[in-house]
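Q: Trace token order:
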Amino acid sequence: MYHNIHKIEKISHLNDSTFILQIERRDLKFTPGQHLVVGKKDDKEFRQYSLYNGINDDYFQILVKEVENGLVTPKLKNLKEGDEVEINGPMGYFTLSESTRKNLPVVMIATGTGIAPFKSFVVSYPELDYKLIHGVRTAEEAYDKELYAKDKYILCTTRDDKGTVKGRVTDYISTKTFHKDTQFYLCGNSEMIFDAMEILKEKGFSANQMFAEVYF
């Protein structure tokens, strides 16, 4: 496992609370779906963030939502270009096997910033047969939606009607049918993940067709 100090190359604010930190990569290898453990230099508090960039980018990106009174995110939000962070990783097993991405349909289900590893999947693997279902409160949280094919991206909004559908991702998947060989990847809050897995089990999918990364 790698452990070192890296510079911030860029910070992009997407709305009042969510931002992208671009961090120098220095030729470190990673597999889409892996994460970094990140904290401000010389700080004792760290958090895990899925990598948001593609495998061929010469930088790392993480997608961060500020947590009010949080121990890490407010400090990260105040960083500027040239400031330093400490990173551990990349690490993790929330990844796509070569046979899955080349031969099987993949449905990715996310809430909020849980979309991060799925953006990495999509931009890294152009051959991927995917559907991406993203649950947010309002359409302004549809981060980088223009990267996804319109027929492959379903935005579920709970507080406005500017998404593909209004309601939770679990409401959406409960009404849909999926190919029997579909592999499901779920990332986001634990309540959504547990509820979605129960719905998929009721539809006849087995536990070994489901892979989860819990964010909070």
